[in-house]
Amino acid sequence: MKKSYKIEVDCANCANKMEQAAKKTEGVKDAVVNFMALKMNVEFEEGADPKAVMQQVLKNCKKVEDDCEIDL
Ligand SMILES: [Zn+2]
What we know:
Blueprint: E1 2-8, H1 12-23, E2 28-34, E3 39-44, H2 50-64, E4 69-71
Antiparallel strand pairs: 1-3, 1-4, 2-3
This protein binds zinc ion.
The site of zinc ion has 4 residues, from helix 1.
């Protein structure tokens, strides 16, 4: 399953940090952040609950960049 989320982040460097943090989150198969579009596309593992996984993605992203936001 793939979903797209709107994000807030100040620069491409932080967007890249968010992408790395999202990719390492359990339940995430792949994540791609598009800084120009301020979008995060997430592919979930089979059977993962996107809502629960995204809460963790947001937490992990905030660890590497406190100023970021994901519209969940
Ligand atoms: Zn930044």
